[in-house]
Recover the amino acids of this structure.
């Protein structure tokens, strides 16, 4: 489980509960804490966790910034070979046009011109192993979360956080976990 910026893993509780209730092991990278580190630094924590626990065939379930961290792990991480795929919910793969108006460095990283956003956008091969799920309107990511080459699932509702408990999100996570 890879939460978004300023989120604890508890934001992903509906997905954690669904996975656990169906017998899937669930791991939370608690060292991410409120997830305010740069994407590359946060991905190192995820890499270390996967290695330390000797996990393989991993399905990352990520929200918002967590999707950027997950893709970074998949394409640039030391533990990339351990990751089978990812379900990314409301992830700003193309950034957010609002980032330029934000003063905090932990939010400015979502600029469409940010080096990490641009670099990850060039990494197309990993997209085949990603399911990007997003609402028809996201107030934080007005450009949406469409990811070329991925399975893109547009929900019939809006929101950035509300979608986490949407039945279709849970269904996509369960399908990838199978």
């Amino acid at each position: 489980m890879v939460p978004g910026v300023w989120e604890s893993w508890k934001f992903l509780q509906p997905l954690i509960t669904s996975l656990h209730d169906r017998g899937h092991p669930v791991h939370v990278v608690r060292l991410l804490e409120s997830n305010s580190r740069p994407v590359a630094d946060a991905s190192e924590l995820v890499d270390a966790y996967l290695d330390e626990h000797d996990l393989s065939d991993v399905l990352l379930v990520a929200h918002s910034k967590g999707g950027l961290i997950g893709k970074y792990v998949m394409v640039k991480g030391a533990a990339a070979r351990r990751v089978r795929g990812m379900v990314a919910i409301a992830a700003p793969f193309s950034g957010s046009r609002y980032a330029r108006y934000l003063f905090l460095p932990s939010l400015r990283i979502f600029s469409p011109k940010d080096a990490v956003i641009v670099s990850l956008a060039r990494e197309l091969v990993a997209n085949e192993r990603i399911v990007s799920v997003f609402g028809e309107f996201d107030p934080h990511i007005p450009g949406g979360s469409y990811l070329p080459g991925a399975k893109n699932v547009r929900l019939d509702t809006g929101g950035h956080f509300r979608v986490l408990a949407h039945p279709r999100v849970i269904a996509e996570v369960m399908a990838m976990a199978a």
